[in-house]
## 1
Amino acid sequence: MIHQPTSNLDFNDYLDWHSLNETRTELLPEHLKRAVRLAESIHLSQQRWQVYLCALATLGFEQWLKERAPELQIHSDSASIWQPATANLLAVACNIQVGAFKICVITASVLTDQHSIPHAVFDIPDFAAHFYVLMQVEESEQQVAISGFINYEQYRSYQQTVRLQIEQDWTYTLPQSWFNSDSNALLLNLRCLNPDAIQLPANIPSIETNTVTALKQKLAIIKPQLQNQYPWELLTINEGITLLSNPDLINWVYKAATPSLVQPLINVGLWLNNEIDRVAQELGWMLMPLPALSQLRSLRSLQENFDQIRASLEQQGVYIPPSARGAYCDLDSEQTSLRMYAITWEVTETPDNPEWTLLIALGSQPQVQMPNTLTLEVRDETKQLFEQSLLDTSQGILYAQVIGNWNERFWVTITADNTVFEIPPFGLELKGT
């Protein structure tokens, strides 16, 4: 269900609303249903409401055009507003096609004569339009109306005069006076104007690879925050331009912001008592044998494989105490296979600041060739703690060791050649579930 954000406005504030003009168009029930379905795919509640209104504005504009100028062909299915990953960042409808013209539909403010509009619709070529149409939405009345329009060259002229500044939320503030309120003039332009009369911005050169790489790294660090905060609260304006100019990054941010279900916890606390939790069992984890049991023939091969890893780690200064306990899990895909070892032990036993450590090491499965390349990443709830790649797995062991308080959890991501394995979080709870 879509809920309108609460407001502190009193009755007198409503006197400032613009009454709908002669372009008033009734929304159909299917319009409302489609807008709701779209809004449900948007993650942040305030953005969800804005996307819902823009979807209604887009459908109302299409309905109005079909009624007033049925000879004009409009195609809006490819509009940015219907792409949840893009709409999650931009609550506007770019890339609507009317004949040879590109249209951008923007939801007008109904409380002031100042409109907050994402700068990307003007400054990033992929989103730029011949005409920008302001649509007033009366959601409670299920009606929309055209509030005004401006073409791209008019925007450029105004911009050169007043030098609009990009706000912290990646928007420009444009006055209503910049927009032509005559809807008949818009129809005349769409019917008679040559599209070449309005020069849209040329595609900008590709953003340098190192700039994109740096942004990817930052996004990986702030990934947990993307579920609760807007990207413009976490990134600079220049980083926002890089993001919005890169469809792959737009999709990455959308997936990162997807509210995750409560993830199962791999409880390594039980391992210290030679027990394994249900979640780990269901994921295929097996406890490492105790030294006394490892002499059994059925377990000897497993212990020998891990002893090789232990010896390699000790050569690099990593010591695993006798009190440590661990488990292993085989990771398989159609392209590659490997074995992941997770070892844990208590670092301090003082009640004031108990800590534990998690050691992750990657090895091969018996009689199976290791992947050619490996990348290991470990993060906690707020930041990346470790990332390292091994471009030649014959040259050593890839491992990571992290230390945390008892209430901390660690997420592990492994990339083997081109296959990514996301491991549920590890945590230490001495009482099993």
## 2
Amino acid sequence: MNRVTIDLQGLRHNIRVIRSWMKKHEATWTIVTKALCGHTDTLRALQLLGIRSMGDSRLANLQAIEKIIPDFESWYLRVADMSSVRDVVGLADVSLNSEIEVINSLNEQARQLNKTHRIIIMIELGDLREGILPGSLIKFYETVFDLSNIEVIGIGANLGCLAGAVPNIDQFTQLALYRELLELKFQRRMQLISAGSSAVIPMLLEGKLPKAINHFRIGEAIFLGTDIVNGGTLPELRDDAIILEAEIAEIKEKGLVPLSETISMTPFELDQAHEDFSPGQRGYRALVSVGQLDTEINGLTPVDSGYHIAGASSDVTVVNIGDEPGGLEVGDTIRFRPNYAALLRLMSGKYIGKEVTPSLDKLKNLPESELLEVEPAIEAVTEDNAK
């Protein structure tokens, strides 16, 4: 059986460690759940662990969370388009925005629904993704601050998400200065600078991140423990909370070098480390019934460091397992660690099973002292306003 296993103890460990980092930095944070693709059991587990602030980039996923967790703070993390503003206002407490026409429409929808919709204004700082240009800040804010049903609770940025540029201290210092400029100009407090992500954690741990960056949106580090900047795994985090188990459909000793001329006729290119084999060299190969249709094979790493992916088609993946089968038989499974791209494909696909362990019933019996309590960021904003 092919399945993704989600180790709730591993997730709980990573959340607890990251929560301690957030507390030390005096920051609030939101767990980014988009990699879960609305997986019901994992979302229920997060609820049982005391998670109360979640963000997603798919409205369908926010709707799924709302059905499971009626009392949670919801963040919509993809800039809204005009056709989705009604659903954004209906499903999300906070959204990230960069277009005045969309914000005007959000305001009108919020007015019709008799709600106040909170927004973070995104600023472009070099990643070339969403965000208004810094030179447009004053004019932009002159408009949004006066909308009747929109509350601007802060500014934000996405760094290290698209262009691959490593976030730096100058970018975060700019954000802090922009907030000061806007507060002085308009005499309004903006409580949050939402610019923290998994890519920013190394800077946080090195003590280089300005205190002004006080809201984080964290996903990959929780689920995979990834150090996006330096490679490997972040200190203290686990990289085995989510594992792909792929069933062996065939295992045989075979030649490791093709017998005929090879050309680039396969539609699937692999970036796996090249293995040097001599003509006529033989070894054991396992064929597992997971392929490019199921996930990003380039994003899989066998848990056993002695195994190496040799290639993959749409339906199967071939793994070199060494000079001996090592006790493996047809029907056994080979375990892989997915990277973020592979995880997204696995969780969104319909062909691979997903299973949480241990059972949710065990989490239900956790004493209150064991709950993680990731508190809503909006509560922190409200408390700050009351001071």
## 3
Amino acid sequence: MQVRLIDPIDLEGFRQRARRLLAARVPPQEVHWCEGAGEGGFEADAPDDLWASGPAAATTAAARDVAPRVPAAFLDLCRRVILHRDPQRLDLLYRLLWRLVHEPALRHDPLDADRLLAQRMARAVGRDMHKMRAFVRFTTVQEEGGATRHVAWFEPEHRIVEANAPFFARRFAQMRWAILTPQRCVAWDGQALRFEPGADRSAKPPPDAGEALWLTYYEHIFNPARLKLAMMRREMPVRYWKNLPEAALIAPLSAAAQARSQQMIEAPATAPRRIRAPQQIHVVPAAGVAPVSLDELRAAAHACRACPIGALATQAVCGEGPLAPAHMLVGEQPGDQEDLSGRPFVGPAGQLLDRAMAELGWPRESVYLANAVKHFKFELRGKRRMHKTAGQREALACAPWLAQEIDLVQPQALVALGATAARTLLGRPVAVQAERGRWLRERADGRPVWVTLHPSALLRLPDPERPQAWRQWLADLARAREGAAPLQPA
């Protein structure tokens, strides 16, 4: 029996014919599948009575409509295999269907020859669909009336245009485009897909300005040190090159790859944009001698190597402000901008603190600003230095510098901005949310400590939570400013 499908990728037509053949118990060796219009055989849209002349003459209409039970994966396999260009694929699919129904053990035999062949066909179709998505190159074409259409030419190995068209419709939904192939063409007008017969290669549009720009970009991003021709040919088979503009550059760029790689090796190192070398230490304080001024403190802290942070930072960042102030505000550690400038609270968190103090009418120059940790701890992400919270041991190593700074500055009260500062000032772990907004008198020197959030904590909050947190933080700062008690004797 010869069965003909008018549309070679009509999966539903194949299913209907195969289901009725199966119900009529027609074995695969007695069926030959054909495709396209022609004489002889039964077409996919033929009426049921045409089947009366075949071996299924005794089959009732109800029996012909019985659907066989097969694994769901088999239908997915059919969707791919039917797109393959092998003319024997329909015979293979019907043979597999027949065997799945009559040989249940086939479902559990991954080494069966028919199954392996069908899976190879499905993988080939999948690769072809991927290559189409990767290697389609659109060219801008001006149509009558000034409208613009993007047109591409592609030569698929299998019948994948219809299956791939929805991907391009989603990917390029906002532009009008068309993809021309020898067997089937597809166009998108912004609303619906339209399929047309295949086109000749002469319909491929000539290069436009965008193609020249793409070639310039491709030439500049070409990395000769990473060139692997065998892998490139495997991922971008040579048969696709004739339709890829950049293919013309592959040969000359590959030929010059070794010379360009040597030039890259011999070229001097690129200077970093933002990271400066650590400052040189000109005056090293004597070991065991306490600094007697803030300048000596800065030099001593800069020379400190009690933890690894000091060796990596640009410089130590001590505080700034007047001596004997009413308040000394202590943060966690300097950030990137503070490390480069040598001044505390000049980055994003410092700018937020400046805004809060301005809103409260609290002049920055009236307080002393410092940090519990004197060096910037960071991790590199590309060329950017990203803040990394100092560990407990690192904060402990810096605690003597903060203590000496407090002795030199002689503030009346201390405001701890964040958990690291609060722990250093109080000598114990502090839960900021639980202990914020009140004076803690635990220090041996009698100075009260007010605990509140670090401004960077507000910067990390989601937008909906930030206004309420901002108001609470302003209230904390206002009470700290207004309620500082005089220094209590030790």
